Amino acid sequence: MAIETVLASFHRLLAARRRVRWHWMAPATSVNAGLVTLGEFWILWGDRKQWTGNYTFFQFLPFAISLLFLFLSAAATLPDEVPAEGIDLKDFYFENRRHYWGLVAAFFTFNILLNLMSLVRFGPNAVWQQNLPRLIGDFVGLGLAAPLIIFRAYWVHAVGIAFALVYLLFFLNSVPLS
After folding, report:
1. Do the beta carbons of residue 37 and residue 107 sit within 8 Å?
2. Which of 13, 56, 111, 113 is least surrounded by CB atoms within 10 angstroms?
3. Residue 29 parent element (H or E)
4. What is d(CA 26, CA 172) in angstroms, rounded to the nearest whole number?
5. Taking each helix axis from N to C terminus, what angle separates 89-122 and 126-150, rounded to the nearest 10 degrees?
6. Could you tell me the pTM of the whole model?
7. Domain spans of the chain?
8. Cα distance between residue 168 and residue 151, in whole Å
9. CA distance 133 to 75
10. Cβ–Cβ under 8 Å, residues 90 and 27
């Protein structure tokens, strides 16, 4: 759903091309959100053999909440509609930055808490140690999102978005699919 929402918003922007003043930051965050969504699927598919036994609804619920943050952050990357008077994507990005990066920070914070709860519950077992690079990736994501919530400086966002895309591509390329 997250990718479909981003693509539908992008399609509306393309359809209203004359009323859109294009700027790279909002579309770049939508690409980032799409990659994070695909990456989560990639990771979950790779981990599917680790899931043994039965799970209750309440054991599944924290994972579902994490996916909720993922969807909401993806949905916040692009405008839902293009007004009749048009839209400037640079203005949209900077007016929306706290909302978007706040949801990104919530997603990574929640993932960190889930990993730490797993560590407390099961100890540093082999599965947790295998997931340690992902936990580090979550800390990197949170460390990137937090300043982008606070600071409005163009160069901070340009560097942050570029770093996020490059880091994410390298990180996802290191996750094996088994």
Report:
1. no
2. 56
3. helix 25-46
4. 22
5. 150
6. 0.90
7. 2-47+57-173
8. 22
9. 27
10. no
